[in-house]
Amino acid sequence: MKNNNLKAWLYLLPAFVFIGAFLVYPLIDVLIYSFEEGYNFASQTYFGTGGYNYSYVLHDPYFLKALKNTLILVGVTVPLSTIFSLAISVALSSIEKLRNLFQTVYFLPYVTNTLAVGLVFMILFNQTPYTPGLVNTVLGVFGVEPIDFIAGPYWAKMTVLCIYTIWVVMPFKVLILTSALASVNETYYNAARIDGTPKWRVFRKITLPMISPTLFYLVITGFIGAFKAYSDAVALFGVDLNAAEMNTIVGYVYDMLYGNSGGYPSYASAAAIILFAIVLTITCINLLVSKKHVHYN
Amino acid sequence: MKVTLKSLTKKFPSRNKKGEEVIAVNNVSLDIEDGMLIGLLGPSGCGKSTILNLLSGLLKATDGQIFFGDDDVTGLPPESRGVGLVFQNYALYPHLTVRQNITFPLENRRGKDKLTRDEMNEMALETARLVQIDTLMDRKPSELSGGQQQRVAIARALVKKPKILLLDEPLSNLDARLRLQTREEIRRIQRSTGITTVFVTHDQEEAMSISDLIVVMRDGIVQQVGKPQEVYDNPANLFVAKFLGTPPINVFNGEVRDGKLYIGDEAILDTSLDNCEVDVAIRPEGFELSENGGLTCELSRVEVMGRDVSIVATHTAAHTPTIRAIIDSDNVISTDSVRFDIKPSKMFVFDKSGNKLTL
Questions:
Q1: Do the domain assignments include residue A175?
Q2: What pLDDT is recorded for position B271?
Q3: What distance in Å separates residue A195's CA from the closest CA in chain B?
Q4: How many CA atoms lie within 13 A of A218 on its CB side?
Q5: Per DSSP, which regions of B69-107 are E strands?
Q6: Residue numbers in B near A297 (CB within 8 A)
Q7: Nearest residue of A to residue B86, measured between CA atoms
Q8: For chain B, give me the number of helices (H) and strands (E)?
Q9: Could you tell me how far CA B144 lies from the centroid of its own chain?
Q10: pLDDT tens per residue, range B127-175
Q11: N or C end of chain A: which has fewer CB within 10 A?
C-alpha cells in the first residue's frame, strides 16, 4: 500500500511540477504584486503594501471603460454565439446532402488566423475616401446612411467587435454541438415519434436535456474566453485600444505591463486579480445554475 | 383491434451502389385476432423486428398493406396509428422521472383531447398500478432495476390506451430469473388489458411460453403460424423443427427403401413413401429405451437432471456429433450401446430440401 502511494506520487509529479511552476506560483506571485505598491521589475523594489493598487485600478477611467467593454462583449457574444451555433448544428444535423461540405465551411474560421480575419473584417466594415465599404454599401441598399464602423461612434465599433467575436468563436461550438447532437440515441426520437410528439417539444424536452452537459461546457468556456478577449479587438482596431475606446480588461493588463515604455506591474496585477475574481464568480454561478438544468446520464 | 398484414414487403437499398437490395420482409400475410398475444420468432436478421417497425409506422412498407381493424394504416405516420411500442433498450428519457416518462405521451395531446395535469397524473398512476411500479413514480430511470425500467416502458406505451402494443425483444436485457418473472408479467398485463399485442423474440422458449400464436420466420419469409404446441408438434419444415425445442431436435440422414424407413442400416418403421433420401428428425423426448429397439446408438455419457435423464450418444447417420435423448430417470443404463424405440408422434421426416413428408 505504502509502495503504491509512492508510485502514485511519482506519476503525478510531472503534472504537479508544471502546474506548480507555471500556474500556482505565478498566480500567488501576481496576488502578492497586487498588494505591493509601485513594484519595479528592474530593481525588484516597492515602496509599500496595501490595497492602493486596487483602489487606483477601480478608479481608473480606462479600467472602467475596459470593464464595461468586456462585460458588454461577454453579455452579447456568449448567449448569441451559443444560440446561433445551436441553430446551425440542429440545421446541419437535419440535412443529409452536402452536410460534410457545410460542416467544413462552418469550421473554416476556426483554422484561420485571428489577425487575418480581423483584416478581412476591417475591409468589410472600413470606410475609405474611395468606397463606403462592403457592409455600408449593402446597408445603403436599405436606405441606411453610411456608418463609420472602425473609427466612428462607440456603438458601431462595439457592434463590429461583437459580430467579429461571435463569428470567431462559433465554429468550435458548432463542431462540438454537432457531435453532441449526433450522439443522442435515435430510439429516443423514435419513441417520441410513436407518441406523436411535436417537433418543438422533442427539441425542448429530449434534445436539449440530452445535450445539456455539452451546452453547459460551451457556456462556461464561452464566458471564460470572452472575459479574456483581447486579440480580437487588436485585430480590428489596432494596438492603441484606449484611443479607440475598445480596450478590454486583458488589454488594460497588457497596457499596464508594457505600455508607456514603463510598466506598472502592480496595477496590472491588481487588474488581473479583479478579472480572476469576476471569472471565478461567474463560473461558480454557472455551476450552481447548471445543477438544476444539466442532466448527466 | 384486429390486425391484418396483406403481402407486406420491405426492401432496404443496398449499402453500396452495385449490391442488390436486401429484402427484409418478403410477402408476409398474417391475420391477428383481437386481443391476442403474438410472438414473432426467428433467428437474427429474419425480419421480425422489421415487421414490428412496419406495424409501428417507423418504417414505410415497400409493398403490401397493413390494416388495423378495417382501416388501412399503411400510409399513416406513427403518431396517427395509435400504437404503443416498447423498445428493446426501453428508451426511457433518462432526465425525466418515472411519472414524467409515463405522462410524456399524454402531454402531446392538443385541442379537445388536451388533458389537465390532474387527469394525466391520475392516468399515469392507474397505469403504473397495473404494472406495479406505483411506488417508484418519483425516481429517475437510472435508479431503477432492469425489470422496473421494463415496466415503466410498458406503462409509457400503455398509458395512451393504444390500439395495439408492440414489444421489441422485451426480455433480452433481463437476467434469466427476471426473464421468467417478466414474461409472466407481460402475459398478465396483456390479459388484464385485453390489448392486441405483438412481440418479437429470438428465444423460442420465451415465445412458446406466453404466446397465443407464434409466427416463425426465416429470411423475411413466414415459415409457420400456429399455436405454440401445434407448431412444436407439427413443424411445417426442418427449419421450424430445428428452431423450436430445447434441447434441440436430433436430425439423422435417412433413406426410404422398399416401404421401410432406414436410419443407417436399421429399419425404423414402415412407410408408404417412395424410395428417396430423407432427413429424419426426432425430438429428445421421442426416444424410449428398449432392448429390442430399432435404433442403436453408441453411448457417450449420461446426464442426470433430477426428474429426467439425458442420454448423450453418437450415431454415424446423425447430422450433429452427438444426439440427445431424454428419458425417465428410473431407467438404468449399463451397456456401451443403447437401443431405442421411436415414438412416431415425436418423429418427423423431411425431404432433402426441408419440406415435411407424411409417412
A1: yes
A2: 84
A3: 5
A4: 26
A5: 71-72, 83-86
A6: 94-95, 142
A7: A191
A8: 8, 21
A9: 27
A10: 998 888 889 999 999 999 888 998 999 999 999 889 899 999 888 888 8
A11: N
The pTM score is: 0.81
Q: Report whether CATH 3.40.50.300 matches the domain B3-243.
A: yes
Is the peptide bond preceding residue A26 cis, with omega within 30 degrees of 0?
A: no
Residue A205 counted as domain residue: yes
In 3-state terms, what secondary structure has residue B289?
strand
Facing residue for B79 by CB, picked from A196, A212, A297: A196
Read off the pLDDT of each residue in B296-325 and give the average, rounded to a whole number.
88
Q: Which residues of chain B does A196 touch, with a Cβ-Cβ cutoff of 8 Å?
A: 78-80, 105, 108
Determine, yes or no, domain membership for A204.
yes
The phi and psi torsions of B82 (rounded to 5 degrees) equal 70, 45
Domain that holds residue A81: 62-99+169-293
Task: Identify whether the C-beta of residue B251 lies closer than 8 Å to the C-beta of residue B268.
Answer: no
Q: Which residues of A touch B156 (CB under 8 A)?
A: 191
Give the residue extent of every domain in chain B.
Answer: 3-243, 250-357
SS3 call for B84? strand
Instruction: Look at B58 and A197 and tell me if their CB atoms are within 8 Å.
Output: no
Which CATH number characterizes residue A242's domain?
1.10.3720.10
pLDDT band of residue B59 (cuts 50, 70, 90) is very high
Helices A114-125 and A154-182 pack at an angle, to 10 degrees, of 130
Q: Is B123 helix (H, G, I), strand (E, B) or coil?
A: helix
Question: Which residues, in sequence order, are CB contacts of A124 under 8 Å at separation 6+?
Answer: A133, A134, A135
Identity of the residue in A188, A191, A195 whose CB atom sits nearest the CB atom of B160:
A195
Residue B225's region, left for phi above 0, alpha for psi from -120 to 50, else beta, is beta
pLDDT at B144: 92
Cβ contacts of A200 on chain B, cutoff 8 Å = none
Give the sheet arrangement for strand B323-328, strand by strand. B287-289, B337-342, B295-305, B308-314, B323-328
Cβ of B108 within 8 Å of Cβ of A196? The answer is: yes
A4 is a domain residue: no
What residues of B are in contact with residue A187 (Cβ under 8 Å)?
A: 87, 89, 91
* Residue of A69 and A140 predicted with greater confidence: A69
pLDDT at B185: 86
Among B77, B80, B93, the residue with its CB nearest the CB of A188 is B93
Rounded CA-CA distance B41/A138 in Å is: 66
How sure is the predictor about A261, in pLDDT bands with cuts at 50, 70 and 90? low
Closest CB to A295 among B94, B105, B160 = B94
Which of B50, B53, B79, B168 is the best mutation test for A, with the most CBs of A within 10 A?
A: B79
According to DSSP, the β-strands at B83-86 and B164-168 are parallel
pLDDT tens-digit series, residues B321-332? 999 998 876 766
Position A227, amino acid: F
Question: 3-state secondary structure string, chain A?
Answer: CHHHHHHHHHHHHHHHHHHHHHHHHHHHHHHHHHHECCCECCCCECCCECCHHHHHHHHCHHHHHHHHHHHHHHHHHHHHHHHHHHHHHHHHHHCCCCHHHHHHHHHHHHHCCHHHHHHHHHHHHCCCCCCCCHHHHHHHHCCCCCCCCCCCCHHHHHHHHHHHHHHHHHHHHHHHHHHHHHCCCHHHHHHHHHCCCCHHHHHHHHHHHHHHHHHHHHHHHHHHHHHCCCHHHHHHHCCCHHHHCCCCHHHHHHHHHHHHHCCCHHHHHHHHHHHHHHHHHHHHHHHHHHHHHCCCC
Q: What is the pLDDT of residues B5-25, one digit of tens each?
A: 999 999 988 877 777 888 899
Are A210 and B142 inside 8 Å of each other by CB?
no
